[in-house]
Amino acid sequence: MAAAGSAVGLGNIWRFPYITGKYGGAAFLVVYIAVALIIGMSVMLAEMAIGRNAKLDAVGSLRKLGGQGWSIVGWMGFFCAFVILSYYAVIAGWAFAYIFEPFTDTFAMAQQGKAAEMFTSFIGNPVKAISFFLVAIAVTITVIYKGIAGGIEKSCKVLMPALFVILLILIVRALTLPGAGAGLEYYLKPDLSKITAEAVLNAIGQSFYSLSLAMGVMITYGSYVGKDVYLPSTVRSVVLVDTLIAFLAGLVIFPAAFAFGVEPNSGPGLTFITLPAVFAKMPMGKVFCSAFFILLFIAALTSMMSLLEVVVTYSIDQLGWSRPKATIAMGLAITLLGIPSALSQGAMEINIGAKSFLDFADYITNNVVMPIGGLLIAFFVGWRWAESAKNEITDNGQLEFPLYNVWIWVCRVVAPVAIGYVFIKNI
Ligand code: TRP
């Protein structure tokens, strides 16, 4: 449950549709599903097996099982959690703002078919861009500081099914909009000639992001799992649920985007432009809109809590800091890093190369550090730890794992070669 909770978040509802729109729709969807099922699932199983065996955090587990050199993979995870949280909170801040937006004048813009303008005027406002980000990150820091994460996670067991139900209602509404058919075709009718190495690299990055891989999180969760649990089933459920939710989000966004004339490749704003437009066409749309973004914000909050927890745990275990010091110091550092991201989406020109600051932070983690981290984890398990991995998963031969050979060769060859190839091709 915890692993699924960590996996489902903005990655499914915000990032998946916008990346899919950027890399051509249906062709990307096909690649994504293949990558999530083959590479994502294998890396998740590798991480959980490592964690359950070593019973330590990511850096400690890799050091224990592989030696000092491999612990660098844990540090890469620390880096990613730090950078991702800095801009994740920006997007969570947008979700927070959209809880109230329906009750302001701007929602009238969505009703007049100007949802894109509504979004642009929202993120172009530096005060709004910063303050909603600060709310999101401050809530996260407070929850972790006070150690009250448990309560929020419990309420999620009720609230996340509600998010799922609203998503289903939205699908019905989106699919019945005039002009939705073109969006459905864009999302479901693949033109495989559109697949590029860049698209595949993005699919790998997106699958790791969405499944919370290459960050040490699943190693940590693995360390809490009992010996009697059959890890392959756990992993399969998490991957299926996560992929299903992302798929359903696309089923709302693309038909709606085409119905309202929004470009599917309009970037990080895609979800925030199309959804209000859909809500504007529904009875009680304001209420639904607000409710949806409350739930999305809570889903994002649980992800932010666990991202900050990753950073804090590393600081406590590896740097010897106290919990309050680690929470405050790391929380403030992440806040500082997030400010340029928050401003870079329209309020100010803050670019690194051709990318906005937010896009750059996203790119360096998802397309560079995480693919390398995932490659190293697969390689480690495939070549250095295969026997122990088999014993770990089968509980020393007590349980059957018929797909062991498939899995181990995915770790040995398929994942490293696929990731390495698309990575080098992109450079
Ligand atoms: N999987 C999360 C999402 O889809 C984002 C995420 C990536 C994450 N790595 C994480 C969440 C680590 C918690 C912990 O939104």
Task: Give short descriptive properties of this protein.
427 residues, two-stranded antiparallel sheet, 1% strand, single chain, mainly alpha, 79% helix
List the helices and strands and how they pair.
Layout: H1 2-7, H2 10-22, H3 26-54, H4 58-66, H5 71-100, H6 106-111, H7 115-123, H8 126-146, H9 149-175, H10 180-188, H11 197-210, H12 217-224, H13 231-259, H14 270-280, H15 285-319, H16 323-343, E1 351-352, E2 355-356, H17 357-384, H18 386-394, H19 404-426
Antiparallel strand pairs: 1-2
The structure holds tryptophan.
The site of tryptophan has 15 residues, from helix 1, helix 2, helix 11 and helix 15.
Could you please describe the fold and organization of this structure?
By secondary structure, this protein is an all-alpha fold. The protein contains 19 helices and 2 strands. It has a two-stranded antiparallel ribbon. Strand 1 and strand 2 (355-356) form a beta hairpin. The mean pLDDT is 93. Bound molecules: tryptophan. The site of tryptophan has 15 residues, from helix 1, helix 2, helix 11 and helix 15.
